[in-house]
Specification:
- The structure is a single chain.
- The chain has helices spanning 2-26, 35-38, and strands at 44-48, 54-61, 64-71, 77-79, 90-93, 98-103, 112-117, 124-125.
- The longest helix is centred in the first third of the chain and has 25 residues, at 2-26.
- The protein is of the alpha+beta class and 136 residues long.
């Protein structure tokens, strides 16, 4: 009788575990693809111009974060940077008509400081020295 009780308890435990595990696995949410954790935001790092007429932000182009400016009144958007190898590391307003930004070349981590007008014309390297790291 004792052996029969133990076998009965054992089978009930196995059946219970099997049933509960199926319920537990069925209740799990769907898996999120790993790529979703490492992709760039659709739009990020907002900054309003000193006069309040423009909004600068970063968004990806060909998987690289670039700086854009939008006229708040008209909604016109303009891309200021054309980075294809590395993301722009950061930016800020210099007055109402220029953006200063940081970028490196080819992943060397020697960041340079650049300036560009709000039309995306004539970007200029303010720190064109080789093998030197600059920061803001």
């Amino acid at each position: 009788m004792h052996k029969t009780s133990l076998l009965l308890i054992f089978f009930i435990a196995i059946i219970s575990f099997w049933g509960f595990s199926r319920i537990a696995f069925a209740a799990l949410p769907p898996l999120i693809p790993i790529e979703d954790f490492f992709r760039n935001s659709e739009i990020a790092r907002f900054s309003i111009s000193p006069d309040g007429s423009k909004l600068a932000y970063m968004k990806p182009v060909d998987r690289r974060m670039n700086v854009f400016v939008r006229n708040i009144e008209t909604g016109e958007e303009r891309r200021l940077t054309t980075e294809k190898e590395r993301d722009v590391a950061g930016f800020f307003w210099k007055g109402n008509d220029r953006i200063i930004f940081m970028k490196d070349s080819g992943g060397d981590e020697n960041y340079h400081i650049w300036i560009v007008n709000i039309f995306g014309e004539e970007p200029r390297n303010l720190t064109p020295f080789p093998n030197v790291k600059s920061s803001i």
